[in-house]
Amino acid sequence: MADLHWYKIEEEIPEGDFIRQVVVAGKKLCLLRHDGIIHLVQNTCPHAGGILSGGWCKEGMLICPIHRYSYHLENGRGAAGQGDYINIYPVRVENDGVYAGFRKSLFSRFFG
Ligand code: FES
Predict the structure, then answer these.
(1) How many angstroms separate the Cα of 39 from the Cα of each of 26, 51, 81, 109, 112?
(2) How close is the Cα of 50 to the center of ligand 1, in Å?
């Protein structure tokens, strides 16, 4: 993961399972903990623009609240038959907070 830029998420991280929108350097993303594991994914549903942080998780899938399309938290793939995916981002938990990893090229595109 040497080609990643780690960016601290400057927001309070709740205990237990949660799902919420976070802003990382001006970019809205969806941060969640499901079954004790923190995940960071894009916040806009590729189907029709639903806000994924308004959804919920079930059995390792993130469910969009609008039409209930679902996405694997581990690899971002849509459920069978959907033919779509969401972007997922590496997360690192340190003593001083949670960090999001962006490929350096992607980080430049997002944040200049
Ligand atoms: S907008 Fe997310 S499932 Fe349709």
Answers:
(1) 18, 16, 24, 21, 24
(2) 5
